[in-house]
């Protein structure tokens, strides 16, 4: 890996010299510089952490700085000057120097089990014994990730929702050998960052949020493929109905309210019998070349050619506004 330095980004050696020790209180390590990793970097830096970044990209510093220029304006707690974020970054030559002395490691490598297993073996050997070893994986289970460690239960999944510096959810998924105290520390760590950690009672592939999202996406593709609606019309249906609804109540509370004073019990007694029948009519579309071409043709005709930065900036502003409005409304009712 490449060591990069600048006036606003320091190396691990500089940190050791400054503190007189490799142990640096208030430091976290982020492994990777993909989309999810960049959100974590922004969030950790905004929270005041020194962020050690380990990446295989030769242009890691330039790549991160470019992303933070966008994220600095969309932080949930308010915009921060870019320099306030970049001055907290440390670009390290390898994984071992990145994790030395840190409080937590947030891993964001490719979804390759062998790669992640090897990474966590290296991380566990170099990081402090009490450091939190966290993975952003969306598909792999913690027991598998930690299989090569002397203590496999140390690896805990902390799966965010994109963009992680804005969307509150973090799904916390622990392995069978994880200690209860460790899970409590992970929850506290994310909660201090302003996140909403939800501990899964059982590890399942895809976890919870992605399974829900996948079910909706499958039917969305089916409806577009069958010519019921276009991509734009489908998005309009969601953002004008279940999107605003689910921002304040989840599916179970929504249908409890749909049952009137009798609640979910009344709703299930009167309409629940038809659920299984309605499920049999849902689509199961193939993601073949024809389907992909249809989706991309409609996306390109609408928003697909708009620059990523402008699309992301607009999304982030509106997403922050929704979250802030809901939080304010709830605070008024307390």
Automatic annotation (TrEMBL):
The chain crosses the membrane at residues 27-49. This is Ketoreductase RED1. Keywords: Membrane, Oxidoreductase, Transmembrane, Transmembrane helix. The keyword Membrane applies. GO terms for biological process: fatty acid metabolic process. It comes from Streptacidiphilus jiangxiensis. The keyword Oxidoreductase applies. SUPFAM superfamilies: 6-phosphogluconate dehydrogenase C-terminal domain-like, NAD(P)-binding Rossmann-fold domains. It comes from the Bacteria. Pfam families: 3HCDH, 3HCDH_N.
